[in-house]
Amino acid sequence: MISKVLSRKVERLKEDYKIQKGAIEYSDLNVPAEPFFSKKYRIAGKPDYVIHDKDRYIPVELKTGGYKIPQKNHIFQLAAYCHLIEENYNVFVPYGILVLNNQDEYKLPFNPKVRFELENTIKKMRYLLNSKTITRNHEDPYRCENCSMRKYCDIKIK
Q1: What pTM was estimated for this model as a whole?
Q2: Where do runs of H (alpha helix) occur along the chain?
Q3: Which listed residue, of 12, 36, 136, 148, carries a Cα 20 to 30 Å from 43's Cα?
């Protein structure tokens, strides 16, 4: 049995780090976890953690870096995690949660519009990769500097 002191400490930590109510079903935060894989889209990913609460599984992604609002890439990353959870747990995922800088929490719906945009984005990415006509879609030096494809890129910023 957990002591009241320890229980209160855990609750304070959950509040401080914006950890949602429910059991943590999966976590990639302290120990590397196995990625989820989608046979349908042939994508893989590892959300920071997945909450299981009231028969729902909700992926949670933590972002740092001074962002004030969710960026388009954050939204698509979280949408991909929602799809991965649905396919791997065979459940409906209504939304995912994005936490920016351990402060602001956004509940992002995984509705038909987002599902459609995710599928189209994956198709477009596959087409561009196969056609070898990839172009940079931003002017952000920080994103460019930290891109996983930087060493292959001919159009990087500096």
Answers
A1: 0.80
A2: 4-16, 72-89, 112-131, 141-145
A3: 136
Domain that holds residue 90: 20-152
CB 70 within 8 A of CB 100: yes
Under a CB-based contact definition with an 8 Å cutoff, are residues 155 and 136 in contact? yes
Please give the tally of structural domains in the chain: 1
Answer yes or no: is 9 within a domain: no
Candidates 101, 17, 109; CA nearest to 58 is 109
Question: Which pLDDT band holds residue 86 (cuts at 50, 70, 90)?
Answer: very high
Of the candidate ranges 83-92, 97-106, 107-116, 142-151, the one whose mean pLDDT is the lowest: 142-151
Contact 34, 28 (CB under 8 A): no
DSSP letter at 27 equals E
- Residue 2 belongs to a domain: no
The DSSP output letter for 62 is: E
